[in-house]
Amino acid sequence: MANTTSLNIYANEQILVIDWNYGQAIPEGILLTLNDKGLPKPIQGVFLTEKGRYLMMTLVPDLPELSKVKFEIRGRDAGLIDSFISKGKLKPFLEKNLQNYSQESVTKILRAFVRKAPLAFKEIKTQLLRDLCKQLGIEVLGWKAGEEIYFNIPCALTDNQKAEKKEILIWRLVDGMADSYEKLTAFWQDNRLHVFVPTSFIADGDAQDGAVYVVEDADSFAIPFKLGKAKKLPKGLNLEETLATQGMFSSQLKSFLNRTVKKK
Predict the structure, then answer these.
(1) What angle do CA 13, 14, 17 make, to 5 degrees?
(2) 48 and 139 share one domain
């Protein structure tokens, strides 16, 4: 009998999301079926840092209309490896689901949704991409620093453990408005992306209006986030001291903060 506890299926509009915690390497020649039909291609896959855990997604045009779903993974000999049967409509993959993964896997998953999926599935509309960013956006608190707001955003990179400056884009996504973006220099260290965003880029009321932002570089990450309330620095402390109390400070980060402050 298949082990159904290792397989979970979600639906984000037309995007079918497959979370398979198989615990070992995927067998060759597997067949994925949805309601007894082969899964549409292309299938976008993400190898997560947890051993034997995989996230896959594909586009199924009539997915929102399906009241029940039977999903099966079969081997080359047609033997059943794993299965999932829904009791009703599939639920979306949301930000709260990210809590079940390592930080490195979360970074991979977010990039897969925000960047890889639109490239693989040309049918994805702009509004669906915005909806995905809203559903998956993590809440990030900011610190007011003069005419900028400072953020440190969770961003775990598996291929690069060296602290360094990164040229990034930040996107502002708001329903009914043209998306805006700005090029910025950020600093990455210890699975955190440190960045100063001009207050002029963040509209009044964004936190209340559900605006979503995305920070991305060329090839490592694309992270959607929602605005938490911007905090003022604790009385008597500067930004360096505040970060030091949170265990997030180094000489390299100090150099980045000082260079940024001098530009004001």
Answers:
(1) 90
(2) no
Shared domain check, 140 and 258: yes
Residue 119 lies in a domain: no
CA distances from 122 to 58, 116, 181 (A): 11, 11, 22
How far apart are alpha carbons 181 and 14 in whole angstroms?
27
pLDDT of residue 264: 46
- Would 45 be classed as within a structural domain? yes
Identity of the residue numbered 258: N
Task: Convert the pLDDT of each residue in 241-256 to its tens digit.
Answer: 666 655 666 777 777 7
Kindly give the residue spans of alpha helices, DSSP state H, lying in 96-250.
103-111, 117-120, 126-136, 206-209, 239-245
What is residue 248's predicted lDDT score, i.e. its pLDDT?
A: 63
Q: Predicted confidence band at 11 (pLDDT cuts at 50, 70, 90)?
A: very high
- Read off the DSSP letter of residue 150: E
Domain count, the chain: 2
Percent of the chain with pLDDT over 90: 47
Q: Give 18 or 259, the one with higher predicted confidence.
A: 18
Final residue belonging to a domain, choices 70, 93, 116 = 93
pTM for the full model? 0.86
Residue 1 tokens read as 């009998």
Domain that holds residue 55: 4-93
On whether both 255 and 138 belong to a single domain, the answer is yes
C-beta separation of 183 from 146 below 8 A: no
Whether 146 and 232 map to the same domain: the answer is: yes
Does 248 fall in a domain? yes
Q: How far apart are CA 28 and CA 223, in angstroms?
A: 32
Sign of CA dihedral 165, 158, 168, 131: negative
